[in-house]
C-alpha cells in the first residue's frame, strides 16, 4: 500500500474522530506542560538551595560553639508517635520534664524531635505554644534541640485525633509519616506545606534553643514490608521534589541554625545512593550537596560505619550520626561511641525511655511469622533493639549508662576499628 492510498483511507476516520483526536492531543500537551513546569520549579528550588548553602568555614564556626554532641531521638514514653506527643490532649509536659531530667543526669546534650505538618495546619498558634513549652523544658535541662520537619518512615496515612493502640510486640507500630502518601504523591499539593515550613522557621529560626533543622527524615523510604501495599510508586521522585522545595523555603527564612537532611541507605559500609544507577542516587547527592552539616544514619558495626564515614569526610563539613543503636547488629554504645568521639562526630541514638513506640523490639517484628519464631508477642526481646531506660528511669543495662558517662567526660579517646 502506497502513502497516498494509506492517507486517503484514513481520511474518513480522521474526519469522524477529529474531536477525540484533538482532545487527546490537547491532554497530552497539557500533561507535558505540567511536567515541564514541575521540573522547572524543582530546578529553581535546587538552584536556590545550592546558592545559599553554608560554606565549610561557616559550618565549622557553628560547630565550634558546641562540645561533642551526644544525644538521642526523643519521643516520651506516653506517646506512640509524633501526633500523640504534640496533640493538646496528650501533650505531657510532666513526663517530658522527668525524662529530659534523666537525660541531663547522664550527660546528654541534644535531642532530635519530630514535628508534624498536620498539627500546624490544625492550629498553628496552639502547636507553637506546645513547642515553646518543650523548648523551655529542654533549655532548663541544658539540652539543645534538633527538629525534624518531614518524615517518610512507617505509616503513610497519618490522621489527627486519637492514635491507635500499640500492636503487641511490634516495633514502632503507630509511627506516621509527614506528609504521607496523599500529599506527597500529588506534586500539585506540595505547596500546601510551604506555610508550615516557613511558619516554623520564621518563628524559631532565630531561637538559640534550636540547634539544627533536619528538614526531612529518610526521604524516599519505601517501607516495603510494613506498608508496601499503600506506599507510592516512584516515591523517591516525589520526595526529592518536596525536599528541594523545603530547602528553598527554609533558606529563604535565613535561620541562624544549619539545615540538613541525613543520608541513610547504608549496606555493609557502602552508601547505596552513591551508585549513580541506584534509584536513590538523586536524593543521596542532593542531601550531601545541600546540607550545611552532614548527617547520616548507621545501624551497622564500627568497621562498616567507619568506612561510611571515610567516604563523607571529603565534604569537609561537621558530621552527626543522627540515628544508630541496633544491639542485635553490633550497633552498640560500646562499639560506636568511641569511634564518633575520636572523630568529633555527633552521636544521637534511637530511643530513650521504653514506652508506647515499642522500639525495644527489632524491625523484623513487623513479620508475624518472625514474631512468633522470636517469641516477641508478650516477652521483651533479648537484647533490646533500641532505647536506653526502663519506664521508671532505671537503665536497661547499667553498664551502658556508665559507659556513656565515661565517653562524654573523656570525649576524644580513639578506637581501633580494624
What does this structure look like?
This protein has 418 residues and is of the alpha/beta class. It has one domain (56-409): TIM Barrel (Alpha-Beta Barrel). Helix content is 45%, strand content 11%. It contains 16 helices and ten strands. Helix 9 runs parallel beside helix 11 (235-253), helix 11 (235-253) runs parallel beside helix 12 (281-290) and helix 14 (333-342) runs parallel beside helix 16 (398-409). The chain is globular.
Q: How is this fold's topology laid out?
A:
Elements: H1 3-16, H2 18-52, H3 56-63, E1 70-73, H4 82-86, H5 93-106, E2 110-114, H6 117-122, H7 124-140, E3 144-151, H8 181-184, H9 194-204, E4 210-217, H10 224-227, H11 235-253, E5 259-260, E6 266-267, E7 270-271, H12 281-290, E8 294-297, H13 302-312, E9 319-323, H14 333-342, E10 346-350, H15 368-374, H16 398-409
Parallel strand pairs: 1-2, 1-10, 2-3, 3-4, 4-5, 8-9, 9-10
Antiparallel strand pairs: 6-7
Helix pairs in contact: 2-11, 5-7, 9-11, 11-12, 14-16
Q: Please give the domain count.
A: 1
Q: So, the CATH homologous superfamily?
A: Glycosidases
Low-confidence stretches: 1-38, 45-50, 412-418
Q: What is the N-to-C succession of helices and strands? A: HHHEHHEHHEHHEHHEEEHEHEHEHH
> How would you classify the helix and strand content by structural class?
alpha/beta
Q: Helical element count? A: 16
The count of DSSP E runs of length 2 or more, i.e. the number of strands, is: 10
Shape: globular
Give me the CATH fold name: TIM Barrel
First-residue to last-residue Cα separation: 74 Å
CATH architecture name: Alpha-Beta Barrel
Kindly state the percentage of residues in helix. 40-55%
Report the portion of residues in β strands: 5-15%
| Chain-averaged pLDDT | 89
The CATH class, by name, is Alpha Beta
Strand order across the largest sheet: 5-4-3-2-1-10-9-8
What Rg, in angstroms, do the CA atoms define? 24 Å
